[in-house]
Fold Transposase.
Amino acid sequence: MRNEAAAEAEAKGRAEGRAEGKAELILKILARGHVSMEEIAEMTGLPLEEVRELAKKKTA
């Protein structure tokens, strides 16, 4: 039981870390201005709306 909880917490932490890393990469790509949001969504597998939300946070 304890091992299951630890494994779940570890998996959740890894997923959150990957999401944060992906968001950071997207913001760097957007800052360069050479790639459209649609292309970023396609390359990352994220929904276009999520890429747009990240872009809004960047400008806020």
Observations:
- The CA atoms of residues 41 and 48 lie 5 Å apart.
- The chain has one domain: 2-59.
- The chain is about 85% helix and 0% strand.
